[in-house]
Amino acid sequence: xxxxxxxxxxxxxxxxxxxxxxxxxxxxxxxxxxxxxxxxxxxxxxxxxxxxxxxxxxxxxxxxxxxxxxxxxxxxxxxxxxxxxxxxxxxxxxxxxxxxxxxxxxxxxxxxxxxxxxxxxxxxxxxxxxxxxxxxxxxxxxxxxxxxxxxxxxxxxxxxxxxxxxxxxxxxxxxxxxxxxxxxxxxxxxxxxxxxxxxxxxxxxxxxxxxxxxxxxxxxxxxxxxxxxxxxxxxxxxxxxxxxxxxxxxxxxxxxxxxxxxxxxxxxxxxxxxxxxxxxxxxxxxxxxxxxxxxxxxxxxxxxxxxxxxxxxxxxxxxxxxxxxxxxxxxxxxxxxxxxxxxxxxxxxxxxxxxxxxxxxxxxxxxxxxxxxxxxxxxxxxxxxxxxxxxxxxxxxxxxxxxxxxxxxxxxxx
Length: 414
Fold this sequence. Notes:
The chain contains eleven helices and seven strands. By secondary structure, it is α+β, with helices and mostly antiparallel strands. The protein has a three-stranded antiparallel beta sheet, with no helix packed on it. It has a two-stranded antiparallel sheet with strand order 2-3. The chain has a two-stranded antiparallel ribbon with strand order 6-7. Helix 2 packs across helix 5, helix 4 (61-82) runs antiparallel to helix 5 and helix 5 packs antiparallel against helix 6. The protein starts with 10 loop residues before the first helix and ends in an 8-residue tail after the last helix.
């Protein structure tokens, strides 16, 4: 009797269900579906390809990281632009003091309670810096655009990875189902041969061969199931969702698949150089680095900056002298002369070694009048009489004159 075998499909034959031609066609279909904003709903509990792609774009951690890098690079760009604006700073302070302290108005020591405050305003503008700021703006601008291209590249790569993982799940699911059907056919063959062997219609060796084939089919079924679950796990990782062994994916009819791209390899390469985000990002990075070199070279040039400051202080112990009416009172009494006449102590500061330039009051008045009418604005004038005396020497001179006029012995008043 002839050996009977089923005409099932082997595991290797099952895996050939989706060819590379179909993968390329599905990739083109996915791009059209996403750009067209097609439906994104579950059909009979199965996830669509567009749903998987959108979930991955929303949850994938590397894509999120690249998005944050884009925001950081854009912030650096805006910061560089702000460097062209003038800076403005203000400050205000208030102090309350008790005991010995320094008066902020006079910078002198005081021993009393007082309060003080101060307000300041400063501004600055860069007039020239070797075009450093302008090149920095261009550098950060190129870097910002490069980050956007790198973000786009990460999304494009993720879409392709999800597409391949999606098709891999469908392919492995087909292989697992066909292998399961193959194992079921082999099991029925074993049951049929068992009946024939029991009736003596065929040899037992055929039954043994068929049982061996059933064991091999069962093992292949288990292996295909494990491969299917591994493919689902990979797809869940790309979408950054919890693993679900019962995940169902919607199948796409072959009639909806587009034809393979008809361009030549050279045309595809030329188009990639112009449109591929990764290539654009690399070109922008090169430009950004070139501008960074110019930023560094600008440090050799002098730096010209315009600054302005405005400050004011207040102290509760400060005083403001305001000129008022002047009343002349002729007392007829002078301290030194009066004390000499009355034999009282003469007030002399310290040892009297301080030197003063003594000038007749009328000469001083004439000098002030001359400066007032003939002096130049902004200049400083010192009025002197070339008549310098130590205080102690002048006091002795007065004592000698008064002793002489009062008829006293010389040196009595000293």
